[in-house]
Amino acid sequence: MLEQFTPYLIYLFYTVSGIQFFFLIIIFGRLLFFNKQKVNIENTKKGLSIIITARNEYYNLKKFLPNILEQDYPEFEVIVVNDASTDDTDFLLQEFKSKHPHLNYFTVQSGINFFHGKKFPLSVGIKSAKYETILLTDADCVPSSNQWAKEMVAAYDDNVEIVLGYGAYEEQKGFLNKLIRYDTIRVAITYLSFAKWGIPYMGVGRNLSYKKDLFYKQN
Questions:
Q1: CA 114: distance to chain centroid?
Q2: What are the residues whose beta carbons fall under 8 Å from the beta carbon of 2, sequence distance 6 or more?
């Protein structure tokens, strides 16, 4: 009985294997030949607005915000939108502001954010930005180096409106951490590979840049 289905099973096996081969070699293979771009000095002459939205992120901001504020970039501002936090985020931002004039922060009061998500505080940050180029990250993220902002902006040219970045997950002990890091890499390989083929479909808000005009076109 099984013998009569054998040719079909073999055909199915080769079909599935062919699809997997196509994705692994043709689609995902584009990343193998990706060359890290050199910093375009002309790009860094343009101002940059780094935006973070935060809700009850006092400890993360205290730990990670200095890494954002101390980026090696000629002219930039950091905007933190305090999204109705109930901890001491507001006092912390006041303290940072006294030491870092290029930090600006805004507080969204409780009950104003009708969208129940990041869109409203993010919109506040973008509309308050004084520079055309926007770079997003999260309060619980730390840049790989003080060159992060330069490296993201380096990808821009006259035909680029969005720059996708990779946001790795911190390595810790435990199987769950390994599973999360694997999934993070898998998702990144997929969306970055499709983007290299000119078919972008997503990015991650913890490492993403786009032009302010593009935001207004879509909202």
A1: 24
A2: none
d(CA 89, CA 86): 8
- Residues 81-110 pLDDT 10s: 999 899 999 999 999 999 999 999 999 887
In 24-98, beta strands by DSSP E: 48-54, 76-83
The reply to whether the predicted model has a pTM over 0.70 is yes
Measured CA to CA, the distance from residue 81 to residue 22 in angstroms comes to 43
- Average pLDDT for 183-190: 88
% of the chain exceeding 90 in pLDDT: 49
Strand partners, 209: 135, 163
Domains present along the chain, CATH in parentheses:
1-33+168-203 (no CATH), 36-167+204-218 (3.90.550.10)
* pLDDT above 70 for 203: yes
If we measure between CA atoms, which residue out of 14, 94, 13, 33 comes closest to residue 61?
94
